[in-house]
Specification:
The protein has two domains: 2-79; 102-323, BirA Bifunctional Protein, domain 2, CATH 3.30.930. A hairpin with a 2-residue loop joins β7 and β8 (247-258). By secondary structure, it is α+β, with helices and mostly antiparallel strands. The protein has helices spanning 2-14, 20-31, 36-45, 52-82, 102-115, 130-133, 144-148, 168-176, 216-230, 277-282, 299-307, 320-323, and strands at residues 120-121, 127-129, 153-154, 157-162, 181-190, 201-211, 236-244, 247-258, 264-275, 291-298. The strands form two sheets. The chain has a seven-stranded mixed β-sheet, sandwiched between helices. Strands 2-4-3 form a three-stranded antiparallel β-sheet. The chain is built from twelve helices and ten strands. The protein starts with a helix and ends with a helix. The structure holds 3,4-dihydroxyphenylalanine. 3,4-dihydroxyphenylalanine is lined by residues 165, 167, 206, 244, 247, 271-273, 294-296.
């Protein structure tokens, strides 16, 4: 009996059950019908009663130990087999890197540029009412200037419209802040237009300065700075007289680059002017005490110039092959 139990203990201690075959062999030799444990049980049955207590508990302990060893090894093998095979040395699938849309880049460059000379950012709603978008800006009812800015009106409420320009933010700012005011208002605007140079949605950045003794010369200084910073010193600038209902006098500003033959190719990039006294009055600001200037720049036009984009609609197609280039 003693030798039998020693052998069981030794087999159990030395067993290396790393494969299914190891487990099967161990089961056959130790746990099985003709295995060591069964042999020991048979021998135990034939022992005289006085000897039984001496060997019984040891035999039971060894039996449990061998069974546990076998069962654990088998469970481990099973769970290993169930794991999906993963090659951890495979490089991962590359994730495409995102980039900022050219319009976002230009808009944040412009805001940063004006921030540096003291302009804060102001905002207004894209769904605007007729008063902020037109009337308060001195567009008389039925004035042809309104036709030039035909837009999208809300069904059932023609007083609500998608703003045609960021100039309405001038009104909202003057109504909510006391002068001195020095803000830029970037944002989306809408018109009923659609061709290579016009999109029904586009972007502007509006500038507004209201203070005592503000002059046209102050405005030119700021606009020269903008051109220098955004385009570089090699660009020429010129102002042409123009008309906007909310400024008097009004101008359009062109930038130009000298061509090889010495001529300058001009391109209009913004509207500007001195805020009309009637607009100041609409916002409860005394035109005898305060004056100011305003300007509106088309952001899409600047992005097209900077990145040489031939068709404005490319900016709105959400094609990463396009927007990933900038
Ligand atoms: N709001 C004008 C437009 O969209 C642009 C403009 C012109 C803005 C003159 C101004 C300005 O602030 O003074 O056509």
């Amino acid at each position: 009996m003693e030798t039998l139990l020693k052998e069981i203990a030794q087999r159990t201690q030395e067993a290396k059950l790393t494969t299914k075959a190891d487990c099967e062999n161990f089961k056959r030799d130790v746990l099985g019908k003709n295995g060591l444990i069964q042999t020991a049980m048979d021998a135990f049955r034939d022992l005289p009663g006085s000897e039984k207590p001496k060997w019984g508990s040891e035999l039971n302990r060894l039996k449990t130990e061998a069974n546990t060893l076998y069962q654990t090894a088998l469970d481990n093998l099973d769970s290993e087999v169930k794991l999906p095979w993963t090659d951890i040395t495979l490089p991962s699938i590359p994730l495409p890197k995102g980039s900022l849309h050219p319009l976002t880049q230009v808009e944040s460059d412009l805001t940063a540029l004006f921030n540096r000379i003291g302009f804060r950012v102001a905002t207004g709603p894209e769904i605007e009412d007729d008063w902020h978008n037109f009337t308060a800006l001195n567009f008389p009812e039925n004035h042809p200037a309104r036709d030039m800015q035909d837009t999208f009106f809300m069904k059932g409420n023609p007083d609500r419209l998608l703003r045609t320009h960021t100039s309405g933010v001038q009104i909202r700012t003057m109504l909510s802040q006391q002068p001195p005011i020095r803000v830029v208002a970037p944002g989306r605007v809408y018109r009923c237009d659609n061709d290579a140079t016009h999109s029904p949605v586009f972007h502007q950045i509006e500038g507004l300065v209201i203070d005592k003794d503000v002059s046209f010369a102050d405005m030119k200084e700021v606009l020269y700075y903008f051109v220098d910073q955004f385009f570089g010193k090699e660009f020429e600038v010129r102002f042409r007289p123009s008309f906007f209902p909310f400024t008097e006098p009004s101008a359009e500003m062109d930038i130009g680059r000298r061509k090889a033959n010495g001529e300058i190719a001009w391109m209009e990039i913004l509207g500007c002017g001195m805020v009309d006294p009637a607009v100041l009055e609409n916002c409860n600001i005394d035109p005898e005490e305060y004056s100011g200037y305003a300007f509106g720049i088309g952001i899409d036009r600047l992005a097209m110039l900077r990145y040489q984009i031939p068709d404005i609609r490319l900016l709105y197609e959400n094609d990463v092959r396009f927007s990933g280039q900038f």
